[in-house]
Specification:
The complex is a heterodimer.
Chain A (H helix, E strand, L loop, with lengths): L2 H34 L2 H11 L4 H23 L8 H39 L2 H7 L4 H39 L4 H10 L3 H27 L4 H31 L1 H5 L1
Chain B lengths: L1 E10 L2 E11 L4 E5 L6 H8 L7 E6 L2 E2 L5 H8 L2 E4 L11 H12 L4 H14 L15 H13 L5 E5 L7 H18 L2 E6 L2 H7 L2 E6 L2 E6 L1 H6 L3 H8 L10
Parallel strand pairs in B: 3-8, 3-9, 6-7, 7-8
Antiparallel strand pairs in B: 1-2, 1-4, 4-5, 9-10
The chains are: A mainly alpha, B alpha/beta.
Chain lengths: 261, 248
């Protein structure tokens, strides 16, 4: 096979994948009303995505806030008064760090586990078995995960925002000598609710991306244990990439009005 | 009645099904035999709509099922039960939930009623006291029997068996064969089984069809296949490495 053929084939198969992923997303969206009746399944997925991820989000967020404080203080020295430390940490956390880092770590944890679970079900013919029982895997497996992702990611993001600011405050107080009052008044000065809501809008998209990439690669799995490994890797890599790309697109859309004046 | 009419299916360069024609009458058991990887399971998956043929049609009770999609396909599948090669039990559910999943999703029966029905079906396949166990706690033979109980839980008209005895010890294989025979005589179920286990094929089949090179090369009763002079078929049913069928 010559290079052109190889490049051509890779591109067509990637494009076909993108199309297939969108089709799966569309049918999952159509199955959402029906899946909402399967309360047990949805709640089970929410607990797995949400409660199960709390320790991970906790550690990630506290340290992110701490690092943000240290880095901001380093860049502020001699130029910007420390009373703006809270402002910078608050803004960067709720707009960017909270939603994106939460999505990336959840993408690793949950995306992988969804892909591995559905992939194993695929290679052991459990997906086919569901089909033969006239139960739609989209309704029974994909839609509940999509709902859980879309609902839980914003909640985890709020949790992460809160913890990261707390981490920032702690480092500011203990490590940088910035008092609690100074820190929080700084946080309040330029605080806009729209910053938080734009972060949460992103989180909704990220939740959908993580669930859909896990399901898509899981359901596409072929060929035993090796296939499950490949599916898991693909789910994590593609959700992380899509999160970063979507983050840029949403940032340019959400903040455009402000920038344009 | 199930009519398979001129089914063709390719995977990449290899022609797996190359013009298959087969009729299955109501209430009879047809066993499709053939070497591993010759497309037997693929054929079975076409009948229940898990795979779509490249061309040809499959007519079940007058309805062409190849074009069915969505709800129409799901409605059609409720006539069927299928036993998978590796049982394909849902490992996140208990044994009774596995058996009763179809009933839980498609009927208004209460959980207690479904559990009672699942327990009855499990008794029918000779399993008691395992309702609340997880599939991972069961042996291979037990899993297969749970899979069988699940396949018949919705009282299907047709049951498809994918290698029902593969991977079982000879005694358990005979138990499964016996079960299939009993289910068929008591419940009047139409059955299609694919297997490479000739003992099982002779025991459960009213008719046998041999799949080789993507085509049905023999079609007849167990007695007829035993009398055949065709060298390739003889090689397969006698299990010989030497003969017209290349082992590579």
């Amino acid at each position: 096979m010559d290079t052109f053929q190889y490049v051509g084939r890779t591109m067509t198969s990637s494009l076909a994948d993108v199309g297939a992923a969108f089709l799966l997303f569309a049918s999952a969206l159509r199955a959402v009303p029906a899946a909402l009746k399967e309360k047990r399944l949805v709640v089970e997925q929410m607990l797995r995505i949400g409660i199960g991820s709390i320790p991970l989000v906790l550690v990630t967020s506290i340290f992110t806030g701490g690092v943000a404080a240290v880095q901001a203080a380093y860049q502020f020295q001699d130029y910007v008064p420390m009373r703006y430390l809270g402002t910078v940490i608050g803004k960067s956390v709720v707009i960017e760090l909270g939603p994106v880092l939460t999505a990336l770590v959840i993408g690793g944890r949950v995306g992988a586990s969804i892909a591995a679970e559905l992939g194993t079900m695929k290679v052991t013919e459990q997906i086919d078995a569901l089909e033969t029982l006239a139960i739609s895997p989209i309704r029974y497996l994909v839609a509940p995960r999509l709902i859980a992702g879309v609902v839980m990611l914003p909640i985890l993001t709020i949790f992460a925002d809160f913890l990261a600011i707390l981490g920032g405050w702690f480092v500011a107080l203990v490590g940088l000598g910035v008092g609690t009052h100074v820190f929080f008044s700084g946080l309040r000065i330029f605080f806009h609710v729209s910053d938080v809501s734009s972060g949460l809008i992103k989180a909704v998209f990220f939740g959908a991306i993580i669930a859909m990439m896990g399901c898509f690669h899981g359901l596409k799995t072929e060929g035993g244990a090796e296939g499950v490994g490949i599916a898991t890797t693909r789910a994590v890599v593609s959700s992380c990439l899509l999160i970063l790309i979507t983050d840029y697109i949403l940032a340019s859309l959400l903040f455009r009005t402000v920038l344009m004046g | 009645m199930i009519e398979i009419i001129d089914i063709h299916k390719r995977f990449g360069p290899s022609k797996v099904l190359d013009g298959i024609n087969l009729e299955i009458e109501k209430g009879e058991t047809v066993v499709v035999i053939g070497r591993s990887g010759c497309g037997k399971s693929v054929l079975l998956k076409h009948i229940i709509g898990l795979m779509k043929p490249d061309s040809g049609s499959i007519v079940v009770d007058g309805l062409d099922v190849v074009g069915l999609e969505g709800d129409a396909l799901y409605a059609f599948r409720r006539k069927f039960g299928m036993l998978f090669q590796g049982a394909a039990l849902f490992d996140s559910l208990s044994v009774w939930e596995n058996v009763g999943l179809g009933l839980l999703k498609h009927t208004k029966m209460s959980e207690e009623d479904v559990k009672r029905r699942a327990t009855e079906k499990l008794e029918l396949v000779g399993l008691t006291g395992v309702e609340d166990a997880r599939p991972s706690e069961l042996s291979g033979g037990m899993k297969k029997r749970v899979g069988l109980a699940r396949a018949i839980a919705m009282d299907p008209e047709v049951v498809l068996y994918d290698e029902p005895t593969t991977g079982l010890d000879p005694i358990m294989a005979d138990v499964i064969n016996h079960l299939i025979r009993t289910l068929q005589s008591t419940l009047k179920i139409t059955s299609i089984a694919v297997t490479h286990d000739m003992k099982s094929a002779y025991k459960i089949g009213d008719r046998l069809a041999m799949l080789y090179g993507g085509k049905i090369v023999f079609h007849g009763t167990p007695e007829e296949i035993m009398r055949t002079r065709d060298e390739a078929i003889r090689q397969f049913i006698e299990g010989r490495a030497e003969g017209p069928i290349s082992v590579h």
